[in-house]
């Protein structure tokens, strides 16, 4: 079977889901460009998989002002790029019962990493992706975007919920604007055994890196689901939310109905 993407840019590929998914794509015949802040890990990835299958580009996505130049550099060097995977993310605990202890600089960084950078990446890469007969923007979101049950991470949940709303609206804009060749795909993972929950990043957890679904199992499932052609899918506990009649399935239908109603209401107020 031919690979589902010719060349993919993986953002946040120095560990966890990003690194594992990049390796999976290579095993299926896709060439990858791995991106992250930790250059030593990127170099190790290329050394493991070979420079004919993978190349690396060190970049910090929180540097929003540099994203346009980053996108130009990538697309000029790789005109065959047909897939961008927006995976970079951080998760921090914030206790608002002790507001003086809330580190707002960390909260702002979490919003920038999880949401704002994704908006900037979308804006920067859409002009290139629109030139392809078939292209994909894949966003690794979180089931917590739908149901913010992990109350210890309120800002993480909010940033992923914002990303979900953004993806829904932009996907519809592209469809209505005749640019449906660029497919926006949102993946809702469960907790996965990665560095996201380890002691370095969440000091109040013990053995947090062992929390959730094994990474290999998640990666295989994600690749299988991407072959289905769905615009969005969940893995693990969130699957029921997206099934026919599920909460998110109903919300998607309400979104479509509301979009039609609001566009009709707005039509007489918009400049011609």
Automatic annotation (TrEMBL):
<comment type="similarity">
    <text>Belongs to the short-chain dehydrogenases/reductases (SDR) family.</text>
</comment>
<dbReference type="InterPro" id="IPR002347">
    <property type="entry name" value="SDR_fam"/>
</dbReference>
<dbReference type="InterPro" id="IPR036291">
    <property type="entry name" value="NAD(P)-bd_dom_sf"/>
</dbReference>
<dbReference type="Pfam" id="PF00106">
    <property type="entry name" value="adh_short"/>
</dbReference>
<keyword id="KW-0560">Oxidoreductase</keyword>
<dbReference type="GO" id="GO:0016491">
    <property type="term" value="F:oxidoreductase activity"/>
</dbReference>
<protein>
    <recommendedName>
        <fullName>Oxidoreductase DltE</fullName>
    </recommendedName>
</protein>
């Amino acid at each position: 079977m031919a690979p589902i993407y010719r060349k993919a840019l993986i953002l946040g590929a120095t560990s966890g889901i990003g690194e594992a998914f990049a390796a999976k794509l290579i095993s299926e015949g896709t060439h990858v460009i791995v991106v992250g802040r930790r250059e030593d890990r990127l170099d190790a990835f290329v050394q493991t998989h070979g420079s004919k299958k993978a190349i690396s580009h060190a970049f910090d996505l929180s540097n929003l002002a540099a994203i346009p130049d980053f996108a130009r550099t990538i697309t000029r060097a790789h005109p065959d790029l047909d897939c961008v995977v927006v995976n970079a993310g951080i998760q921090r605990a914030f206790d608002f019962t002790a507001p003086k202890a809330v580190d707002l600089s960390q909260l702002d960084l979490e919003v920038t990493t999880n949401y704002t950078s994704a908006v900037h990446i979308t804006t920067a890469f859409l002009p290139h992706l629109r030139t392809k007969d078939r292209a994909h923007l894949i966003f690794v979101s979180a089931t917590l975007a739908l149901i913010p049950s992990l109350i210890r991470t309120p800002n993480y949940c909010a940033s992923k919920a914002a990303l979900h709303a953004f993806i829904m609206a932009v996907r519809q804009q592209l469809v209505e604007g005749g640019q449906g060749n660029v497919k926006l795909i949102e993946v809702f993972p469960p907790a996965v055994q990665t560095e996201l929950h380890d002691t370095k990043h969440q000091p109040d957890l013990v053995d947090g890196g062992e929390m959730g679904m094994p990474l290999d199992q998640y990666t295989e499932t994600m690749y299988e689901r991407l072959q289905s052609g769905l615009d969005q899918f969940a893995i693990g506990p969130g699957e029921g939310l997206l099934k026919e009649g599920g909460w998110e399935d109903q919300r998607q239908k309400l979104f479509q109905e509301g979009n039609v109603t609001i566009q009709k209401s707005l039509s007489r107020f918009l400049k011609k």
